[in-house]
Predict the 3D structure of the following.
Amino acid sequence: MFGMLWNMRHLGIDYGTKKIGLSVSDERGSAAFPLEVLDNDSSVLGKISEILKANDISRIVMGDGRSGGRENSVTAEIEKFATILGKKFSVPVELQREDFSSTEAARFVKLKSGKRDDSAAAIILQRFLDAEGS
């Protein structure tokens, strides 16, 4: 059982209607790292499937999209996408508050191309890992 604790890789997702930022944790499930940004189009589930397999992901953590705890225009889409991921890939999907994750990512990533979505995903995932470890 102890060995299983060392293989708890997580995939972090910062969902957007146009782009989806992805991050991945280390094998111990203690640190999150930006991975890539995908176009939110018809190929996104196939690409996520490849990433899940290539990284031996045991859990998905998505930003819940609420702002200050209140639902917004993307909340329902996020919940729908989380449900699809859980059913399609049989991997637990957790929602994590993401307040100001994009703003925080912008402090560290000075790109105008929108590539900070993967950094926002890493911040969301790191918050989850920190809360889980405390």
Observations:
- The longest strand covers residues 32-39.
- Residues 117-133 form the longest helix (17 residues).
